[in-house]
């Protein structure tokens, strides 16, 4: 029925999108969802070019970065992806994902993401460790990174983006720069306080 996989996927996604009433949040994960899966590159991928042309503009596209698990994200890469998709990507960040090796747990701070990325994104999702409690530091430091990104962006750069974080009491989200080490120390302090509080609860 369809001349290519990309056209088939776009057609199905468009139809579901319309049946659901064109919701404000509708995510499409392409078969080529990172640079290493693109042939020969994101900007020259026939698959992504077709997705860009056929997929309705209101549908957001998921991207994981240079690889499935990307150690770094750069503005240059995101600009290339936006150029071919004709829309800013939603990053599905697998930095902490351990479902491919459950013997490992990732407890470090959110890092390897260049400053000033937020205007290049339509959104960011964090794929965490499978172990719930082990995600305190990853999520806490992601929040610190998010606040520092707000501080480095102008209001015009953030136009059209949904803001989901709120600053802590007495702290302006428009100030400061991100330091993974400082973010880690803040997270550890709050995590120890959380652990101590739980230890005092009856029955713990």
TrEMBL record:
Species: Grallaria varia (variegated antpitta)
UniProt gene name: Mgea5_1
GO BP terms in the entry: glycoprotein metabolic process
InterPro entries: GH, Glycosyl_Hydrolase_84, O-GlcNAcase_cat
PANTHER family hit by this protein: O-GLCNACASE, PROTEIN O-GLCNACASE-LIKE
GH84 domain: residues covered: 1-150
Organism ancestry: Eukaryota, Metazoa, Chordata, Craniata, Vertebrata
Family annotation (SUPFAM superfamilies): (Trans)glycosidases
The name this protein goes by in its record: OGA GlcNAcase
A GO molecular function held by the record: beta-N-acetylglucosaminidase activity
